[in-house]
Design brief:
Sulfite Oxidase, Chain A, domain 2, alpha+beta, globular, single chain, five-stranded antiparallel β-sheet, 20% strand, 9 strands, four-stranded mixed β-sheet
Amino acid sequence: MKRRKNSDVDADLLIRDAAKLLPDSSRRLFLRGGASLGALTMLTGCDIIDGPSSERALRVISEFNDWVQARLFNPNRLAQTYPESAITRPFRFNGYYDESEAPDVDEDTYRLQLDGLIDKKQAWTLDQLYALPQETQITRLICVEGWSEIGKWTGAPLGDFLRRVGADLTAKYVHFACAEGYSVSIDMPTALHPQTQMAMKFDGEVLPTKFGFPMRIRIPTKLGFKNPKHVVGMAVLNNYTGGYWEDKGYNWFSGL
């Protein structure tokens, strides 16, 4: 069969996008080895002839990156922490919507719904969440867009909460649903990491609406889009559920 020409593919742009998705060590080998559409075809097993096939190739690269990152993740390695003097004030708002469109969650009727592989599925009120033992950490939030800022977060360690509600800690994923329709899932080792927290305060005050009131999952070992805001639901699962940005092509693991 005669191979179609790659007339619909911007080769240089595709190669640059693929290199960005590869782990550091593999990226260097790929670029040093004469990166080309042919090399990308061999690496992914995808016949790259048009836009859809280019997207499939990038998806394969992204999944490979996730696989590598997951195996390199050290559940005992802590993200860097900072002194009070390093806190960024004012702290930047980030989201896929404008700040004025952040959901206004009613604290009196709020309930955190639990589902999946959890023994105690009773919904939690905000008062019950506030009563949990909490810790404060000053860590850097890193956005996939390239900027970062240091903030002070206070909340209950997610791992402690999962143990408290009888979650199956051998399950693969923890999925979060948010009031504004956002969703995201993370791997269980990250959920159990000592710095992953259910943040309910920011800079010593009740979590502002723009930063995720009433509760945000703060994960300093992952990129910012993996830190869901306005969390209203949590499920422990063995089936992959993707997420808002992941379904659009972002790396699922997205560790730092």
